[in-house]
Design goal:
Radius of gyration: 47 Å
Oligomer: single chain
Low-confidence stretches: none
Largest sheet: none
Number of helices: 3
Distance between the termini: 153 Å
Order of helices and strands: HHH
C-alpha cells in the first residue's frame, strides 16, 4: 500500500476518533441535563393552588363581606360598651362602699380610743 494512502487513512481514523470523543462528551453533557427529567416532570405536574382574580371581583367580595360582618361587629361593640358601663358603675359602687367602710372604721377606732381615756 501506498504510504500517502495509509497517512490519509490514519488522518481519517484520527478525525473519526475525535468526532467519537466529541459525541461521547456531548452525550455525557446531555445525560447530566436530562437524568433529572422525571423529577422535573413530577414537579411541573403539580396542581395550581392560586389563581389570579380580577380586582373587581375582589372588591365585590370585600363589600359583600363588609355588609355581612359590619352589623355583627356593631352589635359586639354595643355589648362591650354596655359591659364597660356596668363595670364602671360597679367600680364606683365599690369605691363608695370602701370609703363608707373607712369612715366607719375611723369612727369605731375613735369610739374605742375614747373609751380608754
Amino acid at each position: 500500500m501506498n504510504s500517502s494512502y495509509l497517512y490519509s487513512l490514519q488522518g481519517c481514523v484520527s478525525s473519526l476518533k475525535m468526532s467519537n470523543d466529541l459525541l461521547a462528551s456531548s452525550i455525557a453533557s446531555l445525560d447530566s441535563g436530562v437524568n433529572d427529567l422525571p423529577r422535573v416532570k413530577t414537579v411541573l405536574k403539580a396542581d395550581r393552588v392560586f389563581e389570579v382574580v380580577p380586582e373587581s371581583e375582589v372588591n365585590t367580595l370585600k363589600s359583600s363581606l363588609q355588609v355581612e360582618v359590619e352589623p355583627q361587629i356593631i352589635e359586639l361593640l354595643k355589648l362591650a360598651d354596655n359591659a364597660i358601663s356596668r363595670l364602671e358603675r360597679r367600680e364606683k359602687n365599690l369605691i363608695s362602699k370602701a370609703q363608707l367602710q373607712e369612715v366607719r372604721l375611723q369612727q369605731a377606732t375613735r369610739s374605742t380610743s375614747s373609751m380608754f381615756y
